[in-house]
């Protein structure tokens, strides 16, 4: 069911010294790159993968300048490497998401996608000094859980 995605993850993992890297039975995997956790989920059992990462919590006193910087990064994906930044208005959590179709993708292309995503997440989280937690995977925002997990 996740053959194409798991092929990429296995090859990617082997290159990093992580033998047997793959999605779990629910179609999920999480990797940590320095301070950035990259959550990966299969989308509806297709060849598409949802990448998402918490950028942190937007401080209540962030002010319009910080929000403007995040919006500017999001504008035509110029600062997000093709991903989108979103804010959960209830919790103040800021996340970056991207859907990638991996059908026929080579491992070097996957590495480039992951590197660009991690670099963008580091850059965007630095806009408001909210370093993501490195100790546990970040759950998707609650209102999207049904969409993501089915």
Topology:
Elements: H1 3-16, E1 28-33, E2 36-42, E3 48-57, H2 63-74, E4 84-87, E5 93-101, H3 107-125, H4 145-149
Antiparallel strand pairs: 1-2, 2-3, 3-5, 4-5
CATH architecture type: 2-Layer Sandwich
Number of domains: 1
Percentage of residues in helical conformation: 25-40%
Mean pLDDT: 85
Beginning-to-end CA distance, first to last residue: 15 Å
Q: Which fold name corresponds to the CATH topology?
A: Yope Regulator, Chain: A
Order of helices and strands: HEEEHEEHH
Put simply, the count of helices is 4
Instruction: For the largest sheet, list the strands in their spatial order.
Output: 1-2-3-5-4
Query: How many β strands by DSSP?
Result: 5
Q: Sheet bearing the most strands, described?
A: 5 strands, antiparallel
Q: What value does the Rg take, in angstroms?
A: 15 Å
Which word captures the global form? elongated
What is the highest CATH level, the class? Alpha Beta
β-strand amount: 15-25%
Low-confidence region ranges: 130-137, 143-150
Q: Which class of secondary structure composition applies to the elements?
A: alpha+beta
